[in-house]
Specification:
Radius of gyration: 27 Å
Number of domains: 2
Order of helices and strands: HEEHEHEEEHHHEEEEEEEEEEEEEEE
Helix content: 10-25%
Structural class: alpha+beta
Distance between the termini: 107 Å
Number of strands: 21
Length: 381
């Protein structure tokens, strides 16, 4: 009479052990998934070279754990790979050599005090690799929080859940006014949006200028893929025209001012071509008209914050150094050709897109202000 219960108990215990072993083995398999963290291409002034290692360390620490193991690809990297991997094809090749389940690759671009994050997450567990791309423009104080958010998204994708599709559109008007250190005041209430437009792209750069001479300023909105011209219509903004990037380029920066003195502002559009910057010059009297096609290097308008005349500056760009050499003031000669004038005084180490003009000592002469090495505030010519 006691044999059957004993046998039943023995079978129950054995079944329980089998179940435990199954879940333990499943956990081990899940924990063995690997992600190859490939070198990110850094487009920045040499003074920010430290960012590359810092961002890599931060990504590695946040990606590893809870079922993911970060592996280093150093043993299979070529000299070019060590400068950064942005190609999907090359990322897949490296990941397969490492037998990784996932790969993270892309680029980080420093634009003055802001950054553009262009990161990709490749899932090689599928029959055909799936790539999720993230492009975000952030200020310096938002860099680390945004990187953490992107890694959180990547981890969710690895778990089979694209968390980005479930995020809310943001707080309501009343919630936006609340914060730990924010107290609503008459001054803060005085500044309110006067118009809005829906832009279904990551905005890289903005500028405002009266491009067609009708007395009403146009708004230039730049993404990686397009330059859009908006005009204000009552409480909204209306899109007038869009200039699309070529397949071989990605837009980076836009600025506008009448430097040649013909009464119409020129549009200086900086783009990525390979690993260097090139600039095209356009006008928009109602439609896009090209004035200069793909001049090597950066061209950027400095507006005088004290109300003086704007100037145009330039800096070379190479494959090894995205910002290279001296910063020059530019001008147009009598034949309408863009030429170099004088180098900016003692501006070695200055971060190109942080520079501005302002007469901060009120002596009637504007000074260059910018981030970089100490002592970069020098009088403008």
């Amino acid at each position: 009479m006691t044999v059957r219960p004993a046998r039943k108990l023995k079978k129950a215990i054995l079944g329980f052990i089998v179940i435990i072993l199954f879940f333990l083995s499943f956990h081990v398999i899940a924990a063995n998934k690997t992600v190859a963290l490939l070198p990110l291409q850094l487009f920045a002034d040499p003074s920010k070279a430290y960012l590359g290692q810092g961002i890599k360390t931060m990504l590695a620490s946040r990606l590893s754990g809870e079922g993911l193991e970060v592996i280093t690809p150093d043993s299979v990297l070529s000299g070019a790979d060590k400068q950064g991997v942005t190609s999907e094809q090359r990322a897949e090749e490296i990941a397969r050599l490492l037998k990784a389940n996932y790969a993270v690759f892309g680029s980080v671009t420093s634009l003055g005090t802001g950054y553009s994050l262009d990161l990709s997450f490749m899932d090689l567990t599928k029959e055909k690799p799936m790539v999720t791309k993230v492009s975000e423009g952030v200020t310096e104080d938002q860099l680390i929080p945004k990187l953490s958010e992107i890694v959180y998204d990547f981890r969710a994708i690895a778990a089979g859940l694209d968390i980005r599709k479930q995020k809310s559109v943001g707080p309501g008007p009343e919630e936006e006014a609340k914060g730990l250190f924010f107290k609503k005041s008459a001054e803060s209430s005085a500044f309110r949006p006067t118009g809005r437009a829906s832009v279904k792209m990551g905005v890289m750069s903005l500028d405002v200028a009266d491009l067609d001479g009708d007395g009403q300023p146009e708004i230039l909105v730049l993404s990686r893929e397009a330059l859009m011209i908006y005009v204000r219509r009552e409480k909204s903004l209306m899109l007038k025209e869009t200039l699309r990037a070529d397949r071989t380029e990605e837009f980076l920066k836009v600025s506008a001012a009448d430097i040649d003195g013909n009464g119409r502002p020129e549009i200086y559009l900086v783009s990525f071509y390979g690993k260097r910057a090139q600039t095209s010059v356009w006008e928009w009297p109602g439609k896009f008209t090209r004035k200069l096609d793909r001049e090597n290097g950066h061209l950027h308008v400095l507006r005088n914050q004290g109300g003086g005349q704007a100037i145009l500056i330039s800096q070379d760009s190479g494959i090894d150094n995205f910002f290279m050499g001296k910063i020059w003031q530019m001008a147009y000669d009598q034949g309408g050709k863009l030429v170099r004038k004088d180098p900016l005084p003692e501006m070695k180490g200055a971060q190109f897109y942080t520079l501005t003009l302002f007469d901060y000592d009120r002596d009637g002469k504007s000074e260059y202000l910018g981030l970089g090495e100490p002592g970069l505030d020098h009088s403008a010519p």
